[in-house]
Amino acid sequence: LYAMHTGSYFAEGLELPAAGGSKVIFDTFVCDPLVVDQFVYKLWLNGFTEKEAALRRQSHLTPPTLPTSAITPASPMSVSSSSVLSSSQASGLAGSSSAAGGPSARSQMAVYSLQTWSSLLLHETEDQYRNYRYMENILVNPPSLASQTMFQLAPSVQKFLVENYYLTDDLFLREVLGKKLTNGLRRDMQDIAEKTRLRLSCCYRLFDNLKRVHKAVLQDTKVPAVDVIQAHFMLSKELAGKYARAVFMSIHRFDGGKKRIQFLSYADFDRFAGILMQYWAATPIPVA
């Protein structure tokens, strides 16, 4: 009998000895509903490490307040996890200067409590990152998110995960404008990351998403591009439209590298492509 437990899941099974090794009789898998921290998820998407994400969370969160009654003269440094309360829970308990231990003990406990809180925050961030890495193979194929059984996700959470995973960046799109989405361009992501000041992993994700959408549009030429993108990637109409215009400019090789038009932003090209698609496009591939 074996069992494995970590943060968000518990797996258990039974192995019986057999000729040449053990034989698995059954496996069970129980998963709690996944709690998605939107702030951490966006940091993961933007390429921050677990430690960087935990430090950013610390700067946005208020450390828990420890009630002075938890400090005893005999053991000023001993504290259980249940003693660390949230600020709202401890607000009515903290502040009594007559508690045992004195100012020195309280200051030592405050330092210990902050270190414990920081450590727990890092471990929780690492657990979130681990879940997102497991989930990434599903996010590249959003329709499978509804049928997968590894993570219990509410429809609203699924929508949030997919929409943010496929969010684009105008600075990145400006750099790849008019270029073929080839493996050679993917090898240039280091240069693009330096120009756009995006993390390299983020640039790889943006490139792979754009190439994936581009391929899906070309494979289904009898349906408007926005409809194809929404059907294949479960995106909002607004984001699907932005991808459709990006694919349109890629197909027709819009050249944004000329010096005369360097001052134009990607938003300018995006609007121009939308006008062309609405009023001028007459191609065998319906793109709007």
The end-to-end span amounts to 57 Å
The averaged pLDDT comes out at 78
* Low-pLDDT segments: 1-11, 66-101, 283-288
Give me the Rg, rounded. Answer: 26 Å
Q: How many DSSP-defined strands? A: 3
Beta-strand fraction estimate = 5-15%
User: Rough shape?
Assistant: globular
Helix content: 40-55%
Content-based structural category: mainly alpha
The profile of the biggest β sheet is:
3 strands, antiparallel
Which strand order does the major sheet show? 1-2-3
User: Number of helical segments?
Assistant: 12
Question: In sequence order, what are the helices and strands, one letter per element?
Answer: EEEHHHHHHHHHHHH
